[in-house]
Structures are given as C-alpha cells and as structure tokens.
Amino acid sequence: RVGTSKPVFRWQATDTTGIAGYSWVLDQEPATDPPTQNMGDKVAMTFSDLKQGLWFLHLRAVDGAGNWGPTTHYGFMHAGN
Q: What pLDDT was estimated at residue 79?
C-alpha cells in the first residue's frame, strides 16, 4: 500500500516453548535475514522518517528453547514524509 503516514506493523508467533523475542531489520533489500540476536519481545513497531520507495521489514522469532525461526519479509511502498 502506498501512503505518507507512518507504517505500523504488528506480528505474532507461537511455539510450544513460548516466544522469547524477535529480531528485525528494515531496509530496501527484498531478502535480508535479521541477525540471530534477540531484540526484545515487542510485537508492534512504527517507522518514521522513511524516504520514498519500496521498503521491507524482515522479521524472525526465537523460541523459549533458543531456536530461531525462518525470516518473514513484508514489503511496502512509502510515498515519503
């Protein structure tokens, strides 16, 4: 979706051992893998000050046993601020 408002993303993951946290990267590359570094358990994020163009949020979860899941890539068009 093209827009000038701040993009808001919400996500949820489940696992029998629980979800310990997430790792994410926001960039303009379609296939980035976030690092295997727990960035916290936040399940929503707003991005501001993005330049115009195609952006990608790359997100992955780590379970309570320390296993990282696959990366999910969310693409969106932003019209700029």
A: 82
φ/ψ (deg, to 5) at 44: -155, 150
Question: Mean per-residue pLDDT for 39-49?
Answer: 92
Rounded Cα distance, 23 and 37, in Å: 6
In single-letter form, the type of residue at position 34 comes to: P
Q: What is the pLDDT of residue 24?
A: 97
Give 46's strand partners: 8
If you count them, how many residues does the chain have? 81
Q: State mean pLDDT over 59-77.
A: 96
Q: Within 10 Å of residue 15's Cβ, how many Cβ atoms?
A: 14
> Which of 4, 39, 33 has the alpha carbon at shortest distance from 19?
39
| 45 three-state secondary structure | strand
